[in-house]
Amino acid sequence: MSQVSPAHTEGRLVYELGNRQWDIPKLRELVEDVLPHNNAFDDVEVEHDFETIGRRIMLLNGRRLDHLHLILLAIRDVTEQRRMKAQQQT
To answer: pLDDT grade, residue 90 (50/70/90)?
Structure first.
């Protein structure tokens, strides 16, 4: 979805990717403040307005990989799921 090539991602912080579209305050807090003190975070919901695709609702999961000094970050777009759920409730 982010349409960023590996050549533009390797060795860079997630906040620097693309047009800095991932420089999201909640994501930055999770990576910089939560992961150093905990090994993981699960299903943290974040809403963000992206320049090209509009407002999205995402679930973030992260794990610290100590032996590699890296993190594993999974981002799942649940925007449509949430829209459908809201429609069903009305």
So the answer is: confident
